[in-house]
C-alpha cells in the first residue's frame, strides 16, 4: 500500500508494512493474497485495527463485520475466526447468514495468542450440512477453503492475552489478619 509522507523539504512515497505479513499470519494461516474487498470489523463501538492487542473482555461479543461493495453485487462470502489451528466461528453464505459454528470468545490462558478474522469469496452457495468442519481442534484453513474452491478476500488479526484480575488492598489485609490470628 503506497502512501505519501510529506516532510520539511520534500514529499516521498513509502511502502507501509503489512501487519499480516509482519506477524507471520501470511505463511502460518493464510497464503499470500491481495485483498479484493474492504472489510471493517467492530466489537461494540471499537473498530478493530489489524495487528492490535486486545483484552478478552474487549472481544467477548460476536464481532460485527461490514463488507464494502461485495454483498450488493450478489457475491457470497464465508467469514471465519480462527486461532492458528483452532476454529472459533464460521458463517457461510454471508449474504444470508448461515452460521455453522457458533462464535467462541477468546480466552487465552497463557501467553499471547493471535486471532484471525478472514473473509473468503465463495464460488457458489454452500449447503451447511455438507460443509460443517468436523472439529474445532486441528482445523486447517488452507485445506478447508481449497476443498471448497474459496479465495481469500480480506483478513485482519488481533493478539490477545489473559486478563489479570485487579488486586484489591482489602484482600491483602484479610490475608494478613488470618496470618496474624493463626501465627
Plain-language structure description:
Strands 5-11-10-7-8-9 form a six-stranded mixed beta sheet. Strands 4-3-6 form a three-stranded antiparallel beta sheet, with no helix packed on it. A two-stranded antiparallel ribbon has the order 1-2. It is built from five helices and eleven strands. The chain has helices at 19-22, 25-28, 128-131, 141-147, 169-182, and strands at residues 2-6, 11-15, 38-43, 46-47, 52-54, 64-68, 77-83, 86-92, 98-101, 112-121, 151-161. The model is unreliable at 1-10 and 169-183 (pLDDT under 50).
Going by helix content, strand content and strand pairing, the class is alpha+beta
Oligomer: single chain
Percent range of helical residues: 10-25%
Count of runs of 4 or more consecutive helical residues: 5
Number of strands: 11
Major sheet: order of its strands? 5-11-10-7-8-9
List keywords for this structure.
5 helices, 6-stranded mixed beta sheet, alpha+beta, 183 residues
What's the gist of this structure?
The chain has 183 residues and is of the alpha+beta class.
What is the element layout, followed by pairings?
Layout: E1 2-6, E2 11-15, H1 19-22, H2 25-28, E3 38-43, E4 46-47, E5 52-54, E6 64-68, E7 77-83, E8 86-92, E9 98-101, E10 112-121, H3 128-131, H4 141-147, E11 151-161, H5 169-182
Parallel strand pairs: 5-11
Antiparallel strand pairs: 1-2, 3-4, 3-6, 7-8, 7-10, 8-9, 10-11
